[in-house]
Amino acid sequence: MNARTEPGLLAQLNNQHLDALEEETIFLLREVAGAFERPALLFSGGKDSLVLLKCAEKAFGIGRIPYPLLMIDTGHNFPEVTEFRDRRAAELQARLIVRSVEDSMARGTVRLAHPGESRNVHQSVTLLEAIDEFRFDALIGGARRDEEKARAKERMFSHRDSFGQWQPKDQRPELWNLFNTRLQPGEHFRVFPISNWTELDVWQYIDRERIALPALYYSHAREVVERKGLLVPVTPLTPARAGETVEVRPVRFRTVGDITCTCPVASLAGSAAEVVIETLATDISERGATRMDDKTSDSSMEKRKKEGYF
Questions:
Q1: pTM strictly above 0.85
Q2: Residue 208 lies in a domain
């Protein structure tokens, strides 16, 4: 192998790797359509759900995705992301269902400890209410095993009991692409078709397929403060505290969740290809680098998943 042929061979091998991941995801999306009566696809407008939606488009075609898109809105989501979510759903002629944490607060099923508390963790309540309202028996999500250690314990078809809870020690074996999808009344599954993808795979796929994303995912100037090793965006919901210095820095978001708990990272990457290069050089997971709500054991991902979180 000489220097001139090596880059072409590496690109070919990478395409084969992405093709295999895409094929697996499309197979699982079709498996859900065949195995369940009332599935839905969780769609936030973030990069992972947009990759999942691209695979659904390939699996079924525009206007033919056989399940609705479901978004649980905290009321504190980035406007750029929710606007992008609505536009993408309209392009695919898909039914979009939005349920709000604020509605759960009005019903009294969600109560904040104080007005400034993040609503992110309370999405579990609104999600379980939506499952009960529409009698969903499967929810397709864009979680990946490389995101966080609790997510690494998930099966692709992850059973939830009649209370919407996840029991990590009581999961069903998945051998030779055979899935036990039997349910008792009130139970449901969470299905994760991109479980085997990594953050790098996602960005390489976005680059290859030219998937449009909200602009927040690329470098832009933003007011931030440094707090506990994170760059916290300065917004009306997350103002600077006394003694903190506000700086305008070039940043991008690796993940886009609730404004109150999502932080950007310093970056000059203005395209998916440039993000790929940055991702190759990083040794910190995207949640570890960007999520304030993952910093304490009281809000650990495993505890929250047991209570019904995504």
A1: yes
A2: no
